[in-house]
Amino acid sequence: MSTHKHYTGLIDRYKDRLPVSASTRIISLNEGNTPLIQLQNIPRLLGKDVNIYVKFEGLNPTGSFKDRGMTMAVTKAVEEGSQAIICASTGNTSASAAAYAARAGIKAFVLIPDGKIALGKLAQTLMYNATIIQINGNFDQGMELVKEVAEHAPVTIVNSINPYRIDGQKTAAFEIVDDLGFAPDYHCLPVGNAGNITAYWKGYTEYARDRVCGNRPIMCGYQAAGAAPFVAGHKIDNPETIATAIRIGNPQSWDYAWAAQQESGGWFDKFTDAEILAAQKLLSQQEGIFCEPASATSLAGAMRDIASGKIPEGSTIVCTLTGMGLKDPDTAISQCAAAHPVTIEANLDAVKRAILDTL
Questions:
Q1: 72 and 50 in a common domain
Q2: Rounded to an integer, what distance in angstroms lies between the CA atom of residue 89 and that of residue 285?
Q3: Close Cβ partners of 297 (under 8 Å, ≥ 6 residues apart)
Q4: Cα(12)–Cα(231) distance, rounded to whole angstroms?
Q5: Phi, psi (5° rounding) for residue 38?
Q6: Are 230 and 319 in the same domain?
Q7: What is the pLDDT of residues 67-108, one digit of tens each?
């Protein structure tokens, strides 16, 4: 009989590092344990001696890293007797909150910006049966409304201002160290609301404190040019980018993200939508890994900084890919020439010609 321990999810795996007890009812969809994939072809294209890994969080149950925080936030909400949760969202948080609320048997309310949510994320939120409230405004306005309404209604906020969200998300740093056997030299990630950079830094810091790893990585946060408050040094009133997951001008984890950057000796940078989409396409076509646009910002940043020498040769780099590509099918299809394939006759000669013409 196998003695292998079967973990049902990240709370079960890391319960000694999370605020749960033996009597806590864990709300889980077997999230976490996502693959750390070493890139093979892109480093060769760069012509640099570096080890680049991607932490593919798109393989969580609802297709994004949000599930890590949501399993904790909903578990604690249920433990505290809450019957409903609420969040503002650019898409991924709403999908995750709705799924975990369904699992827990409680109600989910989500505020989303009208017309500014990727189709895949909207489809998920609808199917999980959340109550969707579309507002004529952006994420930042939605976030302020959520904070206000929570003072007047019996709902638990599950955005990353909920500290249990950060606790859940820090487990991604644990997994990276557990997989590699050490902490990377650099950790690159997209920054929107900044809960993720906050959580990773917390995770690495806890592991270093307990001597699970000897060092902490330099944290590199990358934003879209039209939504880059950390690069600007102040909030952005009307953020715009095709990378909807990071279309945020007033990050809720502002102070924590600055602390992660400064304590680690890292930096923030920004990329145009064209640069973000080019990185998304390159990752898909060179490595077979399909992430959503915002995720590719981390790879765009790593590639630029490796090429410039800011990240030196010999480094081990981890890039967080926050969500899977099917979250935003419209954006993917719109940038592919083969999205409208030519139709040919159904005979052998025509098929042979179509193949040979492209070889």
A1: no
A2: 30
A3: 190, 222, 223, 224, 243, 246, 271, 276, 279
A4: 38
A5: -80, 130
A6: yes
A7: 999 999 999 999 999 999 999 999 999 999 999 999 999 999
The range of the structural domain enclosing residue 83 comes to 66-162
Is 3 within the bounds of a domain? Answer: no
The answer to whether residues 208 and 294 belong to one domain is yes
| Spatial distance between the Cα atoms of 224 and 296, rounded to a whole number of angstroms | 11
**Which of 43, 39, 49, 319 has the alpha carbon at shortest distance from 186?**
319
CA distance 63 to 287: 19
Whether 136 and 258 share a structural domain: no
Handedness of CA 259, 203, 247, 27 (dihedral sign): negative
Percent of the chain with pLDDT over 90: 91
Considering the domain architecture, whether residues 147 and 178 belong to the same structural domain is answered as no
Structure tokens at 78: 């249920």
Q: What is the dihedral of CA 109, 112, 115, 120, to 10 degrees?
A: -70
**DSSP summary character for residue 248:** -
Give tens-digit pLDDT for 197-218: 999 999 999 999 999 999 999 9
Residue count of the chain, please give it: 359
Under-50 pLDDT residues of the chain: none
Total number of domains constituting the chain: 2
Report field, pTM of the whole predicted structure over 0.90 = yes
* CA of residue 26 relative to chain centroid, distance: 22
